[in-house]
Amino acid sequence: MFFAEITPLSRVRSRANGQGVQSDELRSGSSFHPFCRPFPPLNANPETIPLHAELLGDRDRPALVVMHGMLGSRRNWASMARQLSEYFAVWTLDLRNHGASGHSPEMSYPVMARDLGAFLAREAISQPLLMGHSMGGKVAMRYTVDHPESVAGLVVVDISPKAYPPRWEHEFAVLRALDLTTLASRGEAEERLASDIPDWAFRKFLTTNLVRDPASKAFVWAVNLEALQAALPQLFREGVCPPDRFAGPTLFVRGGRSRFVSADDFPRIREIFPHAVLETIAEAGHNVHFDRPEAFAECLKGWMERNKLMAS
């Protein structure tokens, strides 16, 4: 099993179930302090963007707040939210510069964490369970270490608290160059993008961000491509690093076919999140909740039940 190769960590628990989930709780044998560059200071009075949200489930149940990845939206989590709404008041958010939420040139994890805090205050949500995928996972981590006493638990999906090599510059340039004035359908947009973005599933995902302008009826981008492209150096940064710390229940879920979370990340994870449990969903890629939704849901429910985070 992959986790058995980790050093200097020792495996203290292992299990595999019929859903293809491998689980380990790890303890660190030595302190690990990665080099992290400080984030630029926030403006003295940073603007918060009111986040668009959808609620599924009884509002009196424990709150589960879900955040998508880059160029995604709350709709990416609609199916999973329906499954989990039996146990939670599930809030799916559009982060700033995405979906139906507002646009701003400011785009960093501290700024997005402030947006999240303003949303929780607006909806009078206390002690939520936070779950984020990819970029949304880093937002969830940032808010949690900033407000550890205010969060019941944390779920991070296929992302680590580390810096990643810059990417997506090509894709952003291609999207921004697409002429929307003559575009008749999303299908036509996919055809025009095919030579530059050959992956069919990725093209379809990107074009979900095309929406009709209510006034002109022409296609426009729901995402703020200019702000996101300018922010790529910030968004591929660590997000959190020591001495940041959250000692509450924490679950990291990775796809077995994904390269976003590696064995080398586990010491760093446990430095910041000492009670983290790390789960691998076999045969899933980066979009774990799409690739293996049943296994992902069972993984979540099992961890939530063990930590008494679910409504009975």
List keywords for this structure.
single chain, 312 residues, alpha/beta, Rossmann fold, 2 domains, 9-stranded mixed sheet, 10 helices, globular, disordered N terminus
How would you summarize this macromolecular structure in one to three sentences?
With 312 residues, this protein is α/β, with parallel strands linked by helices. The protein contains ten helices and eleven strands.
Strand order of the largest sheet: 1-2-11-10-7-6-4-5-3
Examine the coordinates and then state which fold CATH places here, giving the name of the CATH topology of the largest domain.
Answer: Rossmann fold
Q: Class by helix and strand content?
A: alpha/beta
Q: Measured on Cα atoms, how large is the radius of gyration?
A: 19 Å
Q: Globular, elongated, flat, extended or rod-shaped: what is the shape?
A: globular
The major β-sheet equals: 9 strands, mixed
- The overall pLDDT average reads 88
In the CATH hierarchy, what is the class of the largest domain?
Alpha Beta
In CATH, what is the homologous superfamily of the largest domain? Alpha/Beta hydrolase fold, catalytic domain
CATH architectural grouping of the largest domain: 3-Layer(aba) Sandwich
- Helix fraction? 25-40%
How far the N terminus sits from the C terminus, by CA atoms, comes to: 34 Å
Structure overview:
The chain is α/β, with parallel strands linked by helices. It has two domains: 2-165 and 236-306, Alpha/Beta hydrolase fold, catalytic domain (Rossmann fold, 3-Layer(aba) Sandwich), CATH 3.40.50; 173-232, no CATH class. Helices cover 30% and strands 18% of the residues. The protein has ten helices and eleven strands. It has helices spanning 78-84, 109-122, 135-146, 169-177, 186-193, 200-207, 225-235, 266-272, 288-291, 293-306, and strands at 10-16, 21-27, 53-56, 63-67, 89-93, 129-133, 153-157, 210-212, 219-221, 250-255, 276-281. The protein has a nine-stranded mixed beta sheet with strand order 1-2-11-10-7-6-4-5-3, with helices on both faces. It has a two-stranded antiparallel sheet with strand order 8-9. Strand 1 (10-16) and strand 2 form a beta hairpin. Helix 5 crosses helix 6. The chain is globular, with a radius of gyration of 19 Å. The two termini are 34 Å apart. Mean pLDDT is 88; it is low at 1-19 and 23-35.
